[in-house]
Amino acid sequence: MARKETAADAANAGRLKQIALTYKMTRKADKMIGLVLAAVGIGTLGVFLAIGFLIGHPVYLGIFGLLIALLATAIVFGRRAERAAFGQMEGQPGAAAAVLDNIGRGWTTTPAVAMNRSQDVVHRAVGKAGIVLVAEGNPNRVKSLLAAEKKKMNRIVADVPVHDVIVGNGEGQVELKKLRTTLLKFPRVLAGPQVTATNDRLRAMGDLMSNMPLPKGPMPKGMRLPKGGQRGR
Predict the structure, then answer these.
(1) What angle do CA 86, 111, 155 make, to 5 degrees?
(2) 186 secondary structure, DSSP code
(3) With 0-12 CB in 10 A as exposed, 13-18 as middle and 19+ as buried, what is 143?
(4) Pseudo-torsion of CA 121, 78, 27, 88, nearest 10°?
(5) Stated pTM of the model
(6) Which of 95, 108, 167, 216 could form a disulfide with 232 if both were Cys (CB 3.0 to 4.6 A apart)?
């Protein structure tokens, strides 16, 4: 019993440490984070207390309001932490790969399946939507890189839909912070066994960068994206 309590205490301490670290990293990019969280928490609790006094149940509404205030504060903190993380990642090489790596269960991501001398790069994600090729780099150069990779995918897995996305802020491009949402919006047309078969065929083919070490992404030390699950396996 004591061992279980010790393990639980250690897990709680680890979570608290991670929250504190995330707050510090967020505060570097968002100076108002502390005031915003305080305003949300106190404001929410104040509203419930006021309602409680009006209806004659300040204790019950106060307790309920405290729980709601904590929840609202956590939601706001998560969103602002996510925005700060994307702000620090945007424009850095490997940023799209870091987002893809956190896309969620059911997806298998392979970074840098194609690259040119200018370090424009194409990553690949495979899921029930099919194959999604995600390019980051100079928009004019990555188009030819994407076209070549898409042609190769169509030749290897002709029965699987292939989508392409260019990460950026220009016309026809997808912002880094919207990349995960964009992939999840693609219609699901493959069943689980088809996804597995597609991954097996692509794995057998091999990738351009399979023997070259690649950084996992430019995320600052200690900063994590909100949980979306790990990449599919």
Answers:
(1) 130
(2) S
(3) middle
(4) 10
(5) 0.59
(6) 108
